Amino acid sequence: MSIKNIQKLKKFGIFQNHTNANVKDFGKYNLFYGWNGSGKSTLSGVFRCIENNTTSSKFPSSEFTVSIDNGAPITQANVAGSDLNIYTFNHEFIDENISWDSVVKSILLVDKEKIEEREKLEKLKKEQESDNKKYTSEDEEIRRLESAISKFGTDSARHMKTSLQSIDTTDRYYLNYDKRKFEAFINDNLEASKSDEPLLDDQKIIELTNAAKPDQKSPITFNQKVINKETFTKAKERLVDLLKTSVVSQTIQRLIEYGDIKSWVEIGLDLHKRHDTNQCEFCGNTITDERIKQLEAHFNDDYKAFQTRLESADGWLSGQYIQPPALPATNDFYDEFKNGYSQACKALEKAITDLNEEITAWHTVLKEKIANPLETGLTVEAISESSVEAFNDSLNAISAAVDKHNHKSGNFKEETDKAKKQLELHYATTEVQSFGYHDKKKEVGDRKAKNRALKTSINARDTEIRTLEDSLSNEGIGADQFNESLHKFLGRSELSLRFNPTKKGYEILRNDSEQVDGNLSEGEKTAIAFVYFITKLKENDNKIEDTIVVVDDPISSFDSNHLFHAYSFMKINCEKAK
Question: Exposure of 92 by Cβ count < 10 A (0-12 exposed, 13-18 middle, 19+ buried)?
Fold first, then answer.
């Protein structure tokens, strides 16, 4: 990877709000020049931040965006995860690595003679690089998925808050409904929320929405009176008995055949007896004693007694018609019970109509018997059990609606809370199904487990790499190469480094024995620092062709001869750098 440009620098020293407008992208070689204080060293500080995977300690509130040619821009927010291979030589580098009064940090250079170990190290590093990329990429995907799940929780909680809050604006639980409550509810109702089918249909949602409303109503009184099936069974037996009954009399055939004439004659006979006359009030002729006796034989005492029974049965049957009971008003019920109550009332009305039609059929036959008591061929059907059951069932349904209403009135908060919880579960499950929440949660868990296993493998390989590097690396080789380069650079060999195992660093010696203890010219210090930097580019077998090199201007303190050496030295060692 190479750096394309610096898109943004904000609150970074002299660069308070720099943007990359109309500036060309970097090339392979780039020269920054300008007056003192124009920001050259400050720019090197940006590159140093990327090298150290950290933000600037000098400018803690600074922001930067550095574009690279193959990947996402590097910013102060993600610099800790940057794997850009960059080395920066500036005053910060010198201060971090060299103490002129003490020691210089050691340089670990790889022993070129251990070929098999080097090849294994190369293989492990390639595997490590590949796995690190896989781990980082997968970690980013997992984070994106977790972010989507988190956003889903926030959005779903907002949707549910709107739906449930509209039912009862006084319920603080739903007024403050948030992602935390939503996720807790899903966890508490895990199995129900995994259902593939909607929990509630539209009608049930309407019923529960009504049931959750905070409007409490008074209890309702209803007196239920069902029909005993035995009532009509026994009544039929008595009616059939009456219809089959006749009386012994000297019948007059014409009066049997014509009921209306029979009634007229019977009434007329009674009138003539009451007024003590034998003259026919209709034709004026005399009614003979023989005719009177014929009529009296037809209408004897048994006949009259039976007729009285028939008339009594007629009166009883008239009282058996079903009268609609006094029913509560529909508006007295809670909304969720109104529909069921109304349906029960309609069923009751139909059952009453059906029963009364059957009673009317009985009554019609009885009227025929009354008109002609001597007729014995009349029959009736039984009142159907289904009609009686329909009547009783409708009354029971009405009573059940009343009981539900009264139960809610007596347990109002408990019942409304129950309705709200059912709605909450329905809405939550609907959101979960739409998003595929449980599948995504499982996916996150599975991918995290795999990535943890990959991280374990990476860590184990990292230990193996460090072990190999330790066996291949040698501080003495680092010192030898440094000394060789420094002597060529200065043109003399009086200054050198020697590794001190106790101090775990290099001591600067003059003439191989005398510690300088800071007694160095500025030119010597700069030479040591610069050669140290160039030597350190090869540390841990780092490849210069994969490295971005940034050199700030401490070498400008050299005289012209050393400047030439510095340029030549840098070109020889860094020409292949990115």
Answer: buried
User: Structurally, how many domains does the chain consist of?
Assistant: 2
SS (H, E, C) 108-149: CEECCCCHHHHHHHHHHHHHHHHHHHHHHHHHHHHHHHHHHH
Query: Measuring CA to CA, how many Å separate 32 from each of 35, 44, 198, 335, 438?
Result: 10, 10, 67, 80, 55
Angle at the Cα of 372 from the Cα atoms of 367 and 378, rounded to 5 degrees: 70
**What is the reported pTM?**
0.45
Which ranges in 189-300 belong to alpha helices (H)?
A: 190-193, 202-211, 229-244, 253-257, 259-274, 289-298
d(CA 467, CA 473): 10
| pLDDT mean across residues, the chain | 85
| Together in a domain, 339 and 315 | yes
Q: What is the pLDDT of residues 535-557, one digit of tens each?
A: 889 887 889 999 999 998 756 55
Summarised one tens digit per residue, pLDDT across range 393-433 is 999 999 999 999 999 989 988 888 888 888 888 888 888 88
Q: Where are the beta strands (DSSP E) in 290-444?
A: none
Residue span of the structural domain in which 408 resides: 229-420
Domain contains 88: no
Both 286 and 165 in one domain: the answer is no
Q: What is the pLDDT of residues 68-100, one digit of tens each?
A: 988 899 999 999 999 999 999 998 888 888 877
For residue 277, is it within any domain? Answer: yes
How far from 186 is each of 157, 174, 183, 194, CA to CA, in Å? Answer: 11, 15, 5, 9
- Tens-place pLDDT, residues 248-284: 444 566 766 777 887 887 788 778 778 888 888 888 7
Q: Are 181 and 328 found together in one domain? A: no
Output the CA torsion sign for 117, 120, 121, 122.
positive
**String of b and e for 391-407 (b: at least 16 CB within 10 Å)?**
bbbbbebbeebbebbbe
Note the pLDDT of residue 493.
86
For residues 438 and 371, state if they share a domain: no
Tell me: do 253 and 309 sit in the same domain: yes
Percentage, residues of the chain above pLDDT 90: 39
258 and 284, same domain (yes or no):
yes
Q: Which two tokens stand for residue 241?
A: 């008995």
DSSP 373: T
What per-residue confidence (pLDDT) applies to 199? 73
Residue ending a domain, choose from 396, 431, 447: 447
Domain presence at residue 56: no
Q: Do 200 and 344 lie in a common domain?
A: no
Domain membership flag for residue 33? no
Domain termination site, one of 401, 420, 439: 420
Q: Are residues 317 and 265 in the same domain?
A: yes
Question: Which residues 6+ apart lie within 8 Å of 369 measured at CB?
Answer: 242, 243, 310, 375, 378
